[in-house]
Known about the structure:
The chain has 100 residues and is an all-alpha fold.
Amino acid sequence: MPPRETTDGGDPMDMGQVIDGSREALRMALLLGGPLLAVALVVGLVVGIGQTLTQMNEPVVGQVTRLVAVLAAVLVALPWLIGRWVAYAVDLIGSIPDRL
C-alpha cells in the first residue's frame, strides 16, 4: 500500500513510528506504575491473610493499610519516578522534529 499524501505536502507518520511510540509509552507507564501496584498487591495479600487468620473481616483495615503503603512507596520512589518521567518527556519532545 503506497503512503498517503497529506494536504500540507508533508509525509504522514510511518506505522512503525506509531507502534514504537505506543510501545514506549506503555513501557513507561508499566515502569512507573508497576512498583506501586506491586506494593499494593503484596500489602493487600499480607493484610488479607492476617484478617483471615484473626477472623477480623473489616474492609477499612485493608484499604487504609494499602493506601498508607502505596503513599509511603510513592514518597520513597518519588525522585526516581520524576527523573524517569522527565527523561521520557524530554526524549519525546526532542524527537518531534525527527518525526515531522
